[in-house]
Every structure is written in structure tokens, then in C-alpha cells.
Amino acid sequence: MWIDGVLNSQIYFESDYYKFRKLKYGKSQSQIDDRTIPLLKKIHDETKCKIVMSSSWRCFYFDKKCGLYRILKKAGIRITDKIGNEYNNELSNKYHKHNFVENEKGLYDVIWNKNPNPEPVKEFFGRGLQIQCWLKRHPEVKNFAVLDDDEEDLCCYNMDGYKRFVQTSWYSETEPGLQLKHAEEIISILNDPKAPSRQIWIKQLESHCRTNGHRKN
């Protein structure tokens, strides 16, 4: 799970509600839109899932002084693990071939980015790759879903007609951050008895990257 764009949004930070909460509770306690917490709680309780943080918030969430830690603890929600500096040479090579193309300057462009932002890459730790590497290290995980506001390299988790990536929005004025429809979609994925087994799905993903080459929107 990502945090920014899921448990908060641009609209939230521009709102009078945020200003009120910041004055009342302080900056640390107001970084999260508390209206999203019941929806996260709904996902947590109805699926009995373990939440793994992929967001950069992982760098300080596990400090018990962190506002997010306190908010989630009060709601009875615990993030059990974080995706760290995941790296796997074999997966990384497949990831690069599948998701990036080298341009004339020797830099890498994200294939499906509408406005590519070239940057020099040696060991690129994209979100999708980090999640895939984490799954490789945790074979006990039988089913999973990805919750993020930015598709970046995550649309590969919606391949072959089975959806595991649910996208929220940082910018939306009408449906910012985590909404009921997102929560229900996540619950449906995690509770689906017909979901492809985790082992089969990972093999399909690796095969997809190996045989289909670059993905294009």
C-alpha cells in the first residue's frame, strides 16, 4: 500500500478541513485524511489481510512517534511489514526490458508514461519491481492486491484479465484518495476464492515480461 494519494490527497491538503485539523492536532497528526481510515479499517477487518507498506512513509512509520502510526493504532490497524530496498538481478533485467527503453542519450524512458521524464538508471527500484521482489521473498503469501495512486509500473499487475492493482487518485476533485469503491474492489480481490494462486500468477508475470517485450499504452 502507498500512502500519499491513498490516505490523503491534494484536495485534502488544500481544504479548510486540513487547516482545521492542523491547527487542532498539529502537522504530524493531520498529514492523513482521517476520513479514509474507516475504509482502510473495512478492508482490514473484512479480509483479515496483512498490510505491507510500499510508500516512502516506510522510512519513518515504524517510529511510534509518527502521526500515521498513532492514527492507525487507534483504529486497530497495524502495518506488519515494509518493502525495503528490494533487488533481484534476474527480475531487474526482465523489468528493464519490459518497462523501459533506452533513448538516444543513453537514458531510460518509462514506456507508458505520456510525458516521459528521462533519468539515468543503473539499478532502478520501481514500485512494481520492489513488490515483485518482496513476493519472491515471501512464498507464504497466497493472495495479494496493490493499492496506489500512481500506476507508474504497476499496471503489469492487471495482466491477463485478472486485476490486482487498484488505483486511487491524488488529484481528483470528486473522488480524492481512498474511496468506498476502491475498498470494495480490494476486498473483492482478496476474498476471491477463484483468484489465481500466487505461485501461478508470479510465473505468469515473469513469462509475460519475457515473451511480450515492451508494454505500450
Feature tags:
two-stranded antiparallel ribbon; disordered C terminus; 217 residues; two-stranded parallel sheet
Overall SS class: mainly alpha
Count up the helices.
10
How would a textbook summarize the main sheet?
A: 2 strands, parallel
Which percent bin holds the helix content?
40-55%
Give the total of beta strands: 6
Broad shape: globular
On the 0-100 scale, what is the average pLDDT? 77
> Which residues form runs of ≥5 with pLDDT under 50?
103-124, 212-217
Radius of gyration: 18 Å
Placed side by side, the strands forming the largest sheet appear as 1-2
How do the helices and strands follow one another from N- to C-terminus?
HHHHEHHEHEEHEEHH
In whole angstroms, the N-to-C terminal distance is 24 Å
Report the portion of residues in β strands. Answer: 5-15%
Quick recap:
The chain has 217 residues and is mainly alpha-helical.
Please explain how this structure is put together:
It is a single chain. The strands form 3 sheets. Strands 1-2 form a two-stranded parallel ribbon. The protein has a two-stranded antiparallel sheet with strand order 3-4. It has a two-stranded parallel ribbon with strand order 5-6. By secondary structure, it is mainly alpha-helical. β3 (100-102) and β4 form a beta hairpin. It has helices at residues 10-13, 16-25, 27-30, 37-47, 58-61, 67-74, 89-99, 127-137, 180-190, 198-212; strands at 51-53, 79-82, 100-102, 108-110, 146-148, 165-167. It is built from 10 helices and 6 strands, in the order ααααβααβαββαββαα. The chain is globular.
